[in-house]
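Example 433, ligand uracil.
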Amino acid sequence: MRIYDIIKKKRDGLSLSKEEIDFFVSGYVKGEIADYQASALCMAIYFKGMSLEETTNLTLAIRNSGEVLDFSGVKGIRADKHSTGGVGDKTSLIVAPIVASLGVKVAKMSGRGLGHTGGTVDKLESIPNFKVDLPKDEFIKIVNEIGVCIVGQSADLAPADKKLYALRDVTATVDSMSLIASSIMGKKLAADDDVIVLDVKTGSGSFMKTDAKSKELAEIMVGIGKNAGKKTVALITDMDIPLGKAIGNALEVNEAVQTLKGNGEKDLLEVCIALAVEMLYLSGKGDRKTCETLVKDSISSGKALKTLKDMIKAQGGDERVVDDETLLPTAKYSRFVKAKSSGYINKVNTEGYGLSALTLGAGRNKVGDKIDYSAGIILNKKTGDKVEKGEIIATLFASDDALFEKAEQILLSSTFISDDKPIKRQLILARIE
Ligand code: URA
């Protein structure tokens, strides 16, 4: 078998066999297939797509490229959630402690930022001394003691995804249905959870820009999860508007804390409650109504906040950030962005908002770039809000004020103000089972 022939076959729109997919994945992990050949194959997959059978085989090859974790040491039901990627999406920081505070274990492996989207691991690393790289025994111990532990993808878990993820990030091949589905499900199947809740984002800030494409992606992933014997559900949630009002790592950690203190933005809270309810429901905690009451009580009683604080402490982080936000990294400079005209914010290009935050230093332009944890954006106005010319619509934060001009320009060109009030979109668009 030759990788050249496999690339050519996919380039010509033909289906790849299980053996060919296995050959590619294992050869790439071993370094026998070069990055440029893997890039060419990813691009061919991007253009020609893959059948469900090929996507399933790619998922299994990614799962089998490393260790399939044995979490039998974790007592009780284990549930996980995974988002397909969004802007201002800090739901894991809120949902994981809520669910853990209600007795379902969350042994979570999260990702870093990808393209214009943020990543939970980067957000957690903005907490001083927080460790996302823990030996397996310690990880299991924390899950058993606190109920939740969130770490980065270990080197042994789905290494093919780790390599492909970084390659796709810099070769414009992230937004391929089969590549996203196999990347997420390859990791999820390697992590040995009982319950998987997928948050499939749709709209201008997600990788799948239309509801139809997001639904197709959700169906593929749910199908793969179920075939592997996992209780899997996907919620399709709106990412046409950033979630909440903070974009950027430390800013988002603070917004997550505020949400668990009961001061959350309505949209963010609604999505978090929906995801937590699914995780609890599939874990057998009662019907949806009961689970919703449990979730709301966990926030209002402070139980979820305490769980987050305990998790931060157990993972070596400074848990005082929960009571004192000034202990989080704080940007040296800030700048207001003002509306150029009066009217309603009719729509925003949420990907542009993500790129504006990235320009301020909140994300990476290339593999290995250092993140400025304090950088980001607070949205003073969002889609549907009325604004007057000159009114502040956003506040930018950075450690270098030379970055403001470009970030402001991207943000303004991603904000569309008109006389028409936009029709409000639902936040939870569908549930795929
Ligand atoms: N999240 C992942 O883990 N992989 C992708 O490809 C996209 C989002």
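Summary: Residues 84-85, 111, 114, 174, 179-180, 183-184 surround uracil (CB under 6 Å).
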